[in-house]
Design goal:
The complex is a heterotrimer of chains A (about 350), B (about 100) and C (about 180).
Chain A lengths: L3 H37 L15 H11 L10 H17 L10 E3 L2 E3 L9 H22 L3 H32 L4 H6 L17 H18 L24 H26 L11 H29 L5 H30 L1
Antiparallel strand pairs in A: 1-2
Helix pairs in contact in A: 1-8, 1-9, 2-8, 3-4, 3-8, 4-5, 5-7, 5-10, 7-8, 7-10, 8-9
Chain B lengths: L1 E2 H21 L3 H25 L4 H31 L13
Helix pairs in contact in B: 1-2, 2-3
Chain C lengths: L1 H22 L3 H21 L3 H26 L8 H28 L5 E2 L9 H11 L1 H22 L21
Helix pairs in contact in C: 1-2, 2-3
Classes of the chains: A mainly alpha (about 350), B mainly alpha (about 100), C mainly alpha (about 180).
Chain lengths: ~350, ~100, ~180
């Protein structure tokens, strides 16, 4: 094992790299969203700032910094300032549990490609998802305005309702893998089944496809994205819970939303699409990089799916949204748990 | 090495603070939160004893305590909402008549 | 050594947040202090090796029950506390009584346990989910099923009690609602 100082140095380096990569990914997923939604709507999207508009996120960042940062006089200041920080911190914390590749040996140090390797990694990520309701609820209440309060109540109720379907849809995968450790769940998906079909969890028995779609729908609702973005749509409630926020605090909510999207996409690839498994060939250094490349490719496909759906589907009305979560998704998730456990028990 | 009694004393302090809160606070919701604080202190004591006797029964009991606390919180908050709706106050000194 | 430091850090945070819960006048601050208490208790559970319970504490207690509390505080718009004569008497008598209670419990624990067993994680005694599941679904299956019925009853009770007048059999009646203020 590593000595204490080596361990600390390696961990700090991993934290810095993960944060930088995540924040860059967040910035460029905003660019990707504007381009893709633009092309879906038959227009170009940003194309002036740099080639293909690639420097647009930098311009947006500069705009956010230079905007006037006003604090309305009637807000409850401690919570008003703390809510966006809480949202962003929670969104960035869950990336520390996501493994992106195999164990690598860099300069004589043998280390896994994640910041921490916890036995209950999946439960902790679900816990962080539960805590992120607070950022929304406190933001809306502390703003002391009726649009904010209504938007935040709707958003919190939506997030709490869809958390249940989210958790239950993952139970099928857990029953088949037998562990809550994210690395072990991915390792159980290596190799191939009949013919050339890889042993990803999404291909195992019809139940896991259903679980995958339940997870995807619940994830859309958790991150407040179309078609479930009623709480923050401009045409509905001004801007919902972040109505009274400006410049950097609003940018923090924005970044937290995209970071949540990336986290949810990472969990979907780890649990359903086999994580970093893919064709691996070539010399030693290529064999270390290729799993990371496959992982990033799968996450990118998910983000693209998010954006594609945003450009295509209309949004749910609030009572339709809540009815869908409780009356459709929750029974399907429970049925999936029953079916999967029945199949696993019959195979023993 | 942390002796078990440190955890138990911490649990006793938290429990005592919960009792203080229950006695001196006048807002119904804060009273409820003191009850939750007491339940949490008891959970800590259970886990400490589960460690001392190397038996996981203590941890399973904490699980049940959490479930019961969740059920009690839901029903209790519904009662608080009902009280607020009829008496328009959350001050426990004013909720002192059986019939309005 | 590190465990001692971590214990004192999280223990101090827990006690500080609990005192803050009592000292604050607005219930939303008390609710947030209670969330801090629960989070530090989750860290203490981890120090004792109960990893499943730590995660469940965060998910259920801090992430669901306290959300319920925060919702109710937001919806009822509960204002700040007032100081009535009753609360002053309670403070006068309550503080010494509770100090006495805590002192008695702590003294009993120390007197009855002269050789305390130190918490040492090197023995790899962990409350892993697999181990707890073995107990929960075999030895404690009946209480487990009964608690699920309990939760169902609680859901039904909460829905009935909190629903507005006129929908289900809600609580309170319209003719009493033009409320009498304090008597």
């Amino acid at each position: 094992m590593l000595s204490i100082t080596t361990f600390v140095i390696v961990t700090v380096i991993k934290i810095v790299i993960a944060l930088v990569v995540l924040l860059t990914a967040v910035a460029y997923s905003t660019w990707l969203e504007r381009k893709v939604v633009g092309h879906i709507q038959n227009r170009w999207g940003p194309q002036r700032v740099g080639p293909f508009g690639l420097l647009q996120p930098l311009a947006d960042g500069a705009k956010f910094i230079f905007k006037e940062d006003l604090t309305p006089p009637y807000v409850y200041k401690p919570l008003y300032l703390a809510a966006p920080i809480l949202s962003l911190v929670l969104a960035l914390t869950s990336i520390s549990l996501v493994p992106i590749g195999n164990w690598v040996t860099v300069g004589g140090v043998h280390t896994p490609l994640e910041i921490t390797d916890v036995n209950i990694g999946l439960l902790i990520i679900l816990g962080i998802t539960s805590l992120s309701v607070y950022g929304v609820a406190l933001a809306g209440w502390s703003s002391n305005s009726k649009y904010s309060l209504l938007g935040s109540l709707r958003a919190s109720a939506q997030m709490v309702s869809y958390e249940i379907a989210l958790g239950l849809s993952l139970v099928g995968v857990l029953i088949m893998s037998g562990s809550l450790n994210l690395r072990e769940i991915v390792d159980a998906q290596g190799g191939h089944m009949a013919f050339w079909i890889p042993r990803w969890n999404i291909f195992r028995w019809p139940t896991q496809i259903v679980a995958f779609f339940v997870y995807l729908t619940a994830a859309f609702a958790e991150t407040n994205r179309v078609p479930f973005d009623l709480p923050e749509a401009e045409t509905e409630l001004v801007a919902g819970y972040h109505t009274e926020y400006s410049s950097m605090k609003f940018a923090m909510f924005f970044m937290a939303e995209y970071a949540n999207m990336i986290t949810v996409a990472s969990i979907a690839t780890l649990l359903f699409l086999g994580g970093w498994h893919g064709p691996v060939f070539g010399p030693g250094w290529l064999q270390a990089i290729l799993p990371v490349f496959w992982f990033v490719l799968k996450v990118f496909c998910f983000i693209f799916l998010y954006i594609w759906i945003r450009g295509t589907l209309p949004r749910f009305r609030y009572d339709q949204l809540m009815g869908f979560g409780w009356k459709v998704l929750f029974p399907i998730a429970v049925a999936n748990v029953l079916a999967t456990s029945l199949i696993v028990a019959l195979q023993k | 090495m942390v002796p078990i009694s440190y955890y138990l004393v911490l649990s006793a302090i938290l429990f005592a603070l919960g009792v203080v809160g229950f006695l001196i606070k006048r807002n119904l919701i804060t009273l409820f939160m003191s009850i939750e604080l007491m339940l949490n202190a008891v959970n800590l004591a259970f886990v400490a004893f589960a460690w001392q006797w190397k038996s996981l029964n203590g941890q399973v009991f904490v699980f049940f305590v959490m479930v019961v606390a969740a059920a009690e919180a839901a029903v209790g908050l519904a009662i608080i909402i009902a009280v607020f709706r009829t008496r328009e106050t959350l001050n426990i000194d004013r909720v002192n008549l059986l019939k309005l | 050594m590190l465990e001692l430091v971590l214990f004192f850090v999280f223990g101090t945070i827990a006690v500080g947040a609990a005192i803050n819960l009592l000292a604050q006048r607005h219930p939303i601050n008390s609710a947030l202090s209670l969330i801090v208490v629960m989070a530090s208790l989750a860290a203490l559970f981890l120090l004792m090796g109960a990893e499943f319970l730590a995660a469940i504490q965060v998910i259920v207690y801090a992430g669901a029950i306290m959300v319920l509390f925060v919702f109710v505080i937001m919806l009822l718009n509960a204002g700040e506390e007032e100081r009535t004569p009753g609360s002053r008497v309670a403070m006068l008598l309550g503080f010494p009584a509770v100090v006495l209670l805590a002192g008695l419990v702590a003294w009993t624990l120390f007197a009855r346990n002269p050789h305390p067993v130190p918490v040492d994680l090197a023995g790899r005694f962990l409350g892993s989910p697999a181990a707890i599941a073995q107990l929960l679904f075999r030895d404690f299956l009946l209480p487990f099923e009964i608690t699920s019925i309990l939760i169902l009853i609680a859901i039904m009770g909460a829905v009935v009690l909190a629903s507005p007048v006129g929908t289900t059999t809600g609580s309170g009646s319209p003719e009493q609602a033009p409320a009498r203020r304090e008597e």
